[in-house]
Design goal:
The protein has 8 helices and no strands. The protein is mostly helical. It has 2 domains: 63 residues, no CATH class; 123 residues.
Length: 189
């Protein structure tokens, strides 16, 4: 193996360790899906800003699909939120205001594609929180959400199947978290 290839692979390994939220298969598929008529890029491409932009564009396009095509992602998102709340010992109603640092946790989860916009629709006034951020922060962390929020809401409210599922799943996760936290409180007492 050439030294250049070894260096690129080492950089990619570090990149994927640092950004563990990236779905590696999708990262490598993104340029081919976005540009099917072009030749598959060389490995060196994947350690460039263009590859990162390609992955982000791909993820945003997937997010922009009809919510009924995203059913599995919505389900995974709601489960992720539930696990996050359990891990941090917070009720679901506190998810939108939880912070690990100066930024709201849900904003970071969105930026890292761990949650889907439709999974937020029944959690409270995430829109108010989103627009309370500085414009620069919104651009960095949630530009696609800001740009397409109205279309996400319209699609959500027009999809009976998605809306029903999200409402029911949110209620179930909320109840499960409350029961679990109550159990923890009883064990401590």
């Amino acid at each position: 193996m050439s030294e250049e290839l070894t260096t690129v692979l080492s950089k990619l390994e570090y990149f994927f360790e640092k950004y563990s939220h990236i779905v590696i298969d999708e990262y490598f598929e993104a340029p081919n899906i976005l540009h099917p008529d072009e030749n598959y890029p060389l490995i060196q491409y994947f350690h460039t800003r263009a590859a990162i932009k390609s992955y982000t564009t791909y993820k945003n396009q997937r997010e922009d699909e009809n919510p009924e095509k995203q059913f599995e992602k919505i389900k995974e998102s709601i489960l992720f939120i539930g696990k996050f709340c359990l891990k941090n010992k917070i009720e679901l109603k506190n998810y939108l205001t939880h912070r690990n640092s100066y930024m709201y946790s849900w904003i970071n989860h969105y930026r890292e594609h761990k949650i889907n916009p439709y999974s937020l629709m029944e959690l409270g006034d995430f829109e108010r929180i989103l627009f309370s951020l500085l414009e620069e922060e919104r651009d960095i962390y949630a530009s696609n959400l800001v740009e397409k929020l109205e279309s996400f809401k319209v699609r959500y409210f027009n999809s009976y199947k998605t809306k029903t599922f999200v409402k029911q799943a949110t209620k179930k996760i909320d109840l499960f978290i409350k029961e679990h936290l109550q159990h923890l409180t009883n064990v401590v007492l």
